[in-house]
Structure of Branched-chain-amino-acid aminotransferase 2:
Amino acid sequence: SHVASLQQPGKPSVFSSDDEYADLDWDNLGFSIKPADYMYTMKCSKHENFKQGQLSRYANIELSPSAAGVYEGTKAYRTEDGRILLFRPDLNASRMKIGAERMCMPSPSVDQFVDAVKQIALANKRWVPPPGKGTLYIRPLLIGSGPVLGLGPAPEYTFLAYASPVGNYFKEGSAPLNLYIEEEFVRAAPGGAGGVKAMSNYAPVSEFSPTLVEKLVVVVISSTPEFHQESGKLKLSHGLRFLRILYVFTRYLCLQVLKALIRAKSRGFSDVLYLDSVNRKNVEEVSSCNIFVVKGNVISTPATNGTILEGITRRSVIEIARDYGYQVEERVIPVDELINADQVFCTGTAVVVAPVGSITYQNKRVEFKTGSRSVYQELYSTLVGIQTGVIEDKKGWTVEV
Ligand code: COI
């Protein structure tokens, strides 16, 4: 059908169709995507609010490769003698496969995946940091890139991989982390997709979640009309007056609580540790990494039961710890046990192996032993030694590109 041009003379922002109806079989609409002529786009950066958007023809959009998907994270390491090593990329490949199956997406074969990661590392060789300075973080990504309106598999998928040189994940560098135990919000529920590296597991946990009070304020605001019209006068009814008082009170509380959280963050919390969604008493994982608890010769970490990401660093550290003679247990870890641990540390591709210096739970801060003679240090040195070619790789974990 013919649609009037976007810029009509004299009517610059009015969009209209000359035809009364689009050319469609109106009796058989169903729920497949039949894009209408125009879409609306409005952008804003994280420091501003949305302002004026604009209409444009329905069309594919340009998307930053770093924007979306089911993703992976792996690294390329430069050795002292100038070789480039990958660390267990086949495990990333199989994890993407499992994740893709859970999300009903097709995935590249293990060979295709590893080949892509090798190509990315080679093509970007000059971006791999010098030994000791950092690593090249490679992010393979799978997105449903084709159009779909209902709930169902997308008609087209895109696998892509990009890379970025990185140093320490946390701004505190290699200093011990200060974790904050979140008691209201959870990361994942049994039966959900917490064990899969879906972007939806990371977006909600990347900042402090809103508090209950903040949510209450939203409910009150959205159910409180400002005024009640009665016999020509604007007047508040008793019910509305009550709501308004409640609103002012909750807003005050909200500001106090938010202030406390923001203050807490600026006081140096590194990340949030989540508890299980059913009992709210067992340790799950940190927003960005898995967690381990040390007591004597026993190292424990939450068992992967579908709500916890099966970290490749987690798995490697378990194996290294067993080689050193530690007893490693994968099981349920009550928060009380964590609080009473000798040492605590975190693992992840981005995080590597990081010591935890303190955990704050129910307004109480508990401190842990860290430092050069702690368990994490032993595991960290061995892992990074293998990854960077300093320690001989007897396990066949590294792949030279
Ligand atoms: C990784 O460790 O590779 C991750 O994807 C975690 C993310 C918070 C950067």
In short: The CA atoms of residues 139 and 152 lie 25 Å apart.
